[in-house]
Specification:
Length: about 200
């Protein structure tokens, strides 16, 4: 039986070898990066920093028959960082205080940092100018005076960022939506109201 005749030996094109080596390097770098991120996460165990309303009290709430309301109150919001190995930065902190759909005040803060495993209180003394109310809103203000309790809403958001070792920085939006039922006798309340990311 005759031997089959084979053609000249074919060699793989060097360009194909370069592409194969490049793909192998990319695959290895993705795997190594994934391992570094996973190990970094397991070592640091990051927690999302939070903002929460620590306390609030009304110093003065006034409403007259010309449908003008004024309010003076104090709100303390805590910025909490429960990360044991990373400090957190808070920025773009904007909150709005509402009375039955009427803006009472804007609460803002400059960017600030919170150290590892600590918190920083943000003090907001609020004193509104006279706010004109509609007849319906005025009835709600009269009801608040008769019940000796005013209901305010605190809404807004802040951004937070923290570095997780060599992994890099992590950013989150934190949204706050609180209903504050404040007594008009000057006593302080401690609501359980915190941000959601």
């Amino acid at each position: 039986m005759p031997k089959p005749v084979l053609g000249p030996e074919r060699r793989t094109n060097p360009l194909i070898w370069c592409v194969a080596i490049l793909c192998t390097l990319i695959t290895l770098s993705v795997i190594i990066t994934g391992l570094v991120v996973f190990i970094g996460y397991m070592v640091v165990r990051p927690k999302v920093p939070q903002m929460y309303v620590r306390s609030a009290n009304v110093d003065n709430f006034a409403y007259d028959m010309s449908n003008l309301m004024s309010i003076k109150l104090s709100i303390v919001i805590n910025a909490q960082n429960d990360n044991a190995k990373a400090h957190a930065s808070f920025y773009e902190t904007y909150y709005t205080l509402w009375f039955d759909g009427v803006k009472v005040a804007y609460l803002r803060s400059d960017p600030f940092d919170v150290a590892k495993n600590s918190s920083i209180p943000l003090y907001y003394p609020v004193e509104s100018t006279s706010i004109a109310l509609t007849r319906e809103e005025g009835e709600i203000a009269e009801l608040a005076l008769s019940q000796r309790q005013v209901v305010l809403e605190l809404k807004g958001s802040t951004r937070t960022r923290w570095r997780v070792g060599i992994v890099g920085s992590v950013k989150f939006w934190l949204h706050l939506n609180c209903k504050l039922k404040l007594p008009l006798n000057g006593s302080t309340i401690y609501p359980k109201c915190s941000t959601k990311s």
